[in-house]
Structures are given as C-alpha cells and as structure tokens.
Amino acid sequence: MQTSNSSSLMVGFTPKTFILAGIPGMEAEHIWISIPFCLMYVIIFLGNGTILHVIHMNPTLHQPMYLFLAMLALAELGISASTLPTVLGIFLFDATEIDFNVCLLQMFSIHSFSIMESGILLAMSMDRFVAIYSPLRYTVILTLPRIFSMGATIGLKSVVLMAPLTVLLQCLPFCGHNILSHSYCLHPNLVHLPCADTSINNIYGLFIVISTFGLDFLLIVVSYMLILYTVLSIASREGRWKALNTCGSHVCAVLVYYVPMIGLSMVHRFGRHLPTLVQPTMANIYLFFPPVVNPIVYSIKTKEIRRGIVRVFSKKRVRG
C-alpha cells in the first residue's frame, strides 16, 4: 500500500486548487490587516481613475506625455484589479483556496501588466528625451498614431511573452505541493512547487526578466544619460532646471517601480534563510507601492494634472 502511494506521488498530478497565504503568523489579525489593504485599493482606484478621467476630459492633455501617463495608470489598475479578489478574500473572508486555472490566470495578468508597466516607463523616458532634445519637433515625432502603436506593441509583447510560461506550468506535475507563500499567484512562487524538472520554466522566466525588465531599465538609464548630456548643453541655468524639472515625476515613478522589484527578486533568489515575513512584505511593496504613490506624485508635481483635478472637483461641488 505504501509503495503504491509513493509511486502515485512520483507520477504527480495537477492540483484542483492552490492554498494562498496571508501574512504568516498574523492570521488572527486578518480583519485589522484588511483595513490598510482596503485603504490602498481605494487610493489606487480613486487616484489612477481620477488621472484617467482628467486626461480624457481635457483635450489640452491629449499630448504624448499625458497619454503615456494614462497608459501607466491603466497598467497599474490592471495589476491592482488582478490581486484584489484574493487579497481581500483572504483578509476579509479567510478564503485561502484558489482554483488552479484561476491561479494561472491571475499569475498571467499580474506579470503581463507588470511587463506593460515597465515598457510604458521606457516609453515615457523616450518621450522626455525627445521633448528636451528636440522640443520644436516633439509633436511631429510623437504623433497620436505612433503613440497608440507603441502602446499596442507594449501590450501585445506582454501577452505573447507570458502565454508560454502559463502553458509550461500547466504541463508540470505537482505531487500534492499546492501551498503558496503570497496572497496571490506569482511565477517565482509557483515554479518551486512542481516535482519535475523546471529548468525550461526557469530559463524562459529568466529570458522574460532580462528581455523586458532588464532591457527596459538599461534603456531608461541610457535615455537619462542622453537627457543629462542634452541639458548640460543648455546655456542658461534656468533653462537647465526647467528641462530637468519635467523629468522629476518620471524619475520617481521609475524608482518606486524598479527598487521594490529588484528587492523582491533578491529575496526570491537569496532570501531562503530570511524571516518568513520578509518575502510577502516585499511582494506587497512591489505590487502596491507604485500604484499608490504614482498618482500622488503626478498630482503634486504635474501642474496640468493638478489643475485638471481641481477643476473636476470644483465642478462636482458646484453641481452639488
């Protein structure tokens, strides 16, 4: 009997469900923990939704910089909408089970929108370079059809790259291993569960990381080196400061996106001996920090967005 059981485990199977984790050791405080998560979701959807509404309702903001900002807000809403059902399900209703296929769909959505966000940040850095290097030809180079083509290409690339990773996971046996360490499904977590060789998954996953996040970040750095070179050639100090000031919000967006992502990658690779709280905390910072902070940063530092928001709320007050 023991032999048949062990042989069946070696053959493996596809689990019907995965078990998600909240915050290890704090299960009794889930209701209290749900309060900051609910607050973050409110800020994310209200903040990014307001930016989208302001850009949509103001024809003067239908310019490359603000259209890329709208794409960034959409990507961040996509990531947050992907995590919301399981995060709030765990903390509010103690619903820790997730269907296998739903888990793969959530993983696909989170990573696809993350790749889109990285690509959009690269497009925004190129936008800032063109605006500073050739301001007179800015709208000629970055036409509306070209901007929408760039957005469509970024979205298509994300979906095409992530689809094989989902299929590869479906083909692996799990041998009863179905407990995850996050409140949502991420590939670095899922790929450790199968009881078969995951070399192809790891190699392809590494290829995606290098060809998207790694390459995007490198090109962003190159863009800002060119921006600095261009700014230093401007004669007046006021002109240099004005040019650099237009990049402030984007630099903040790049830092709040890539710093947590690099931290999470380091924890996944080398953090096996760290306390159990570290990994879920880093994952939550990576997924929640950018969509919470970016709308606030752009609302404060971008005069046109700030005016648009004031105009929207002043109209509502007048109607009320």
From TrEMBL:
It is a multi-pass membrane protein. Residues 47-298 form the G-protein coupled receptors family 1 profile domain. It comes from the Eukaryota. One of its GO terms (molecular function) is G protein-coupled receptor activity. GO terms for biological process: cellular response to lipid. Keywords: Cell membrane, G-protein coupled receptor, Membrane, Olfaction, Receptor, Sensory transduction, Transducer, Transmembrane, Transmembrane helix. Its main location: membrane. It is found in: Cell membrane; Membrane. The keyword Cell membrane applies. The chain crosses the membrane at residues 31-55, 67-92, 104-124, 203-231, 243-263, 283-300. One of its GO terms (cellular component) is plasma membrane. Belongs to the G-protein coupled receptor 1 family. This is Olfactory receptor. It comes from Sarcophilus harrisii (Tasmanian devil). The lineage of its organism: Eukaryota, Metazoa, Chordata, Craniata, Vertebrata. The gene is LOC100927849.
